[in-house]
Amino acid sequence: MAQAFFGGVHPNDMKAATNEKAIEQIKAPAQVVIPMSMHIGAPCKPIVAVGDKVTIGQKIGEPGGFVSAPIHASVSGTVKAVEPRPFSMGGTFMSVVIENDFQNTVCEDIKPVADPDSLTPEQLTEIVKNAGIVGQGGATFPTHVKISSGLGKVDYVLINAAECEPYITGDHRTCLERPEQVIKGAALLAKCFGVDKVYIGIEANKQNAADQLNKTIAELNAPVVVEVLHTRYPQGAEKQLVQAISGRQVPSGKLPADAGCCIFNLNTTCAIYRAVYEGMPVVSKIVTVSGSGVIEPKNLECPIGTPISCLFDECGGLKEETYKLIMGGPMMGLAQYSTEVSVGKGTGAMLAFAGDEEKYVAEPQCIRCGKCVGVCPIRLEPVFMYKYLMKGNWEAFRDQLHGMDCIECGACTYTCPARLPLTHAFRLGKQQVNNARMAAQAKAKAEAEAAAKKEA
Ligand code: SF4
Ligand code: SF4
User: Fold this and answer.
1) pLDDT digits over 219-252, tens only?
2) Measuring from atom 4 of ligand 2, which residue has the nearest CA?
3) Can you tell me the distance from the alpha carbon of 98 to that of 74, in angstroms, rounded to the nearest whole number?
4) Distances from the Cα of 165 to the Cαs of 29, 38, 228, 329, in angstroms?
5) Fold designation for 28-99+282-353
6) Ligand nearest to the CA of 331
7) How many Å lie between the centroid of ligand 1 and the Cα of residue 381?
8) Of 398, 406, 428, best ligand 1 pocket probe by most atoms within 8 Å of the beta carbon
9) Cis peptide bond prior to 256, omega within 30° of 0
10) How far is Cα 116 from Cα 273, in angstroms, rounded to an integer?
C-alpha cells in the first residue's frame, strides 16, 4: 500500500447506501437550466437567444478568456430564457434555459477522433479545451490550462479515484461499470505527458473497483498502475495524493506541477475519453443522491443543468423532516437553500439530511484540547488561526499561521469536540485576505495612473 500523509480523520463513510447500486439514467428533465459559469476563471458569454433551436453538444456559451471553458447544450430543444437564475454558489447567475424536445438530437459537429493514438499533446489539449472539460471532482479548474501548463514540466501523472468524502460513490461505480473509459482516458494522458505510467490512486475501501481496473489494464495492456491507498480523509486532496503516491511534498503556496506532478480527477479522465473517442463535450454528470433525507438513495446520470428537484424526485422524493441540503460531500460541500439550483460540471453529490447529523452549538467555547492540530493534513494550527480571526487579525492568520495554505478540508471542524465552526471561519478569513490584496492592487494601480497623469 502507498505511503500515508500526516493528519486526517476517519469519518463513517456512509457509502453503503449507494455503492452497490448501478448508475441509472435519470428520466429526461422537461427543462435544463445551464449556468454560464461552471468553472474557475472567466464566466462564459451566452451565444444563443430565446427561441433558438439547439442540439446536444452544441456550444451555447463562449469562454470569457484563456482560463475558462465553453459550455454546451445538454438536451435538444428550444431556448426558453437567457437570464439570471438561482445558482449553487449563492444568489443568481446568468443561465441558458432549454426546454427539452425529448428528441435527443445530437449536434452534427460531434464526431470521434479517427485515430486517437496519433494525437499530439497540442491536439489533445485543443480537444479538451473545445469539449469544455474542467476538474470534475469539484475543483472545476479548466483542464486544458492544467495540461498546457504542465507539459514538459511533469513526470508524474496521477488520477484521483480516492473519493474520500463520505456518501459519494459515483467514481466507485464508474470504475466498476466503465473501466475502459478510465483506462483509455489515462492512457491518452500518459501519451500526452510522455510518461511511462499513469498512477490511479484509490482508497482501500474500494478494492473491487481496484480489481476491475487492474483487469482492464491487463486486457488493454495499458501504461497504468493502480495504487491502493489508506482509507483516510482527505486522501483525495491534491497535496495528500501527491505525497501518498509519489512521496513528494508540494511546497507551501505552490501547485502539484511545482513538484513535477499533475493530477486529474477520475471523472475528468472519463470526460477526456468521451471527447476523443465519442467527440462528445461535457453534457452529463454522475451524481450520488444520498443522505438520511432521501427516500431511496441512488447514483444518477443526468444532463448538465438538471434542477436538483428532479434528482430528488427520481429518488422517491425528500422526507418531510429534511432540514439541510448539501451540494457535494458533507466535509467540503456547499449548503443549498433552493431546489431550483441545477447540476453543474463539478457536482458529484447532492445530499439531504433529516436525522440528527447537525451538531450546531450556539456559543461554542474552545477547550484547548489540541485535537484540531493533530488532524490538520497541512500541519496548520486551526485553534490559533480561529483565535486570531475572531479578533479580526487576518494579517497574523496569513503571515504567522500560514492560513492561506488551508485547503478547507473540514477535518478540524469534524474533530473539534467543542463544535467550533473552524473551516467556515477560515474560508471567510481567506476571502478577507484576498479582498485586502485586491484592494491594495487597485490602490497601487490608481496611484500609478495618477502619478503618470501628473508627469504628462
Ligand atoms: S480545514 Fe484547513 S485548518 Fe482545518 S484541517 Fe483542513 S487544512 Fe487544516
Ligand atoms: S479541537 Fe476545538 S476545542 Fe480542541 S483545541 Fe481545536 S478548536 Fe479548541
Assistant:
1) 999 999 999 999 999 999 999 999 999 999 998 8
2) 369
3) 9
4) 28, 21, 16, 6
5) Ubiquitin-like (UB roll) (3.10.20)
6) 1
7) 8
8) 406
9) no
10) 10
